[in-house]
């Protein structure tokens, strides 16, 4: 689970669509399925201050401990996804099914990390989280945007033309990710956080054959 500052969006006033909260709920659900199925489970919170691991554990009696671990997640900083995934590939135990839950807003990208995991034999499900207002910005006019991770700012005018350009760039970005994953056998699942996580687990992931 990516626990970088960009995942803590929208803020606490929009908790129903907050990316990190959604990711943690999803991780809890998938982890519970794993534990009740008798699988060996490890959960990692990816953070610039140091990745934190829970497990490996098995058996459904550990479900409460898993949820307690997930509740300790504190967002912050910039997560280097490539570094975190390479480290996980290096020190991880048995390769198996691995879900990466992230908004992929990592300055160094994600490709090298996925390659490192696959070289160790992991089957990967990439759950790409975005909030509804990242897909369809609800604001217009003259704005000052501030990066929550770096503090850098930019002044823009958000008019219909700029919004259309933004939508097209977003579509291209997701298409590039989908093509990259398809060429390497990675399951790519783009999700906006207004989709109930129960529906994602019980329908989307089951239809794709990732969760049984």
Arrangement of strands in the largest sheet = 3-4-7
Mean pLDDT metric = 89
What's the count of strands? Answer: 7
Rg result: 17 Å
Account of the 3D structure:
- With 212 residues, the chain is α/β, with parallel strands linked by helices.
- The longest helix has 23 residues.
- It has a 3-stranded parallel beta sheet, with helices on both faces.
- Helix content is 40%, strand content 20%.
- The mean pLDDT is 89.
Task: Offer a concise description of the structure.
With 212 residues, the protein is α/β, with parallel strands linked by helices. Helix content is 40%, strand content 20%.
Highlighted features:
two-stranded antiparallel ribbon; 7 helices; single chain; three-stranded parallel β-sheet; 212 residues; alpha/beta; 40% helix
